[in-house]
Design goal:
CATH superfamily: P-loop containing nucleotide triphosphate hydrolases
Number of domains: 1
Number of strands: 10
Helix content: 40-55%
Strand order of the largest sheet: 3-7-2-8-9
Shape: globular
CATH architecture: 3-Layer(aba) Sandwich
Structural class: alpha/beta
CATH class: Alpha Beta
Strand content: 15-25%
Number of helices: 9
Amino acid sequence: MVQLRGVVALDGPSGTGKSTVSRELASSLGARYLDTGAMYRAVTLAVLRAAVDPADGVEVERVARAVELVMGTDPLGPGVALDGTDVAAEIRGAEVTGAVSAVSAVAAVRELLVEHQRAVVRAALDQPGGIVVEGRDIGTVVAPDAGLKVFLTASSDARALRRSAQDNAEGRAGDVASTRADVQRRDALDSGRAVSPLRRADDAVELDTTELGVGEVIEQLHKLVERRGLLADRTVS
């Protein structure tokens, strides 16, 4: 049996399948998993709970520095704890989704969370199995030395359909048209922000998932991991 060694960075916009394939890849390779987007969502939830304007950078920073954020790294059940309470479901709500790009654009918040993310990565690398990290600036900022960087893309229509299906499956009402508009809005905000904008790292492999199922994407990722020499024999005790 084999397992991952080192870091796999998976970046891309919303709806490309990052979360699903990142978790499955990590699980299949005995690796840890980190959803950095969930960290920004958790801070956004804290900002909203504090009745702070997401565009007020000073107050957003104050809230971000005051919260206790604990991220689970088990791909089979990654938790998100905010001040000791599991908020994994709540951070996926429409209100958080609408405000997260503004909070994520605050430079001090990104600096704070990037340090947190790097600490999680270092802790994972101290153990066998490596880590799969997903987000929007992993290959460019968080883990620029990752052994494999992949930038996932898909058409806006495909991403809207996937997001709508996910929302409906998880009990959040929505339609494809409004979801498409939200996807495009977040693309513009994330790509246009001054600090750590969404972009493909120069040495990242671009993978278009528009016509691919989850299994096909996982198959492609396994091939890339193997080609990069990032597999090691898994020790069975």
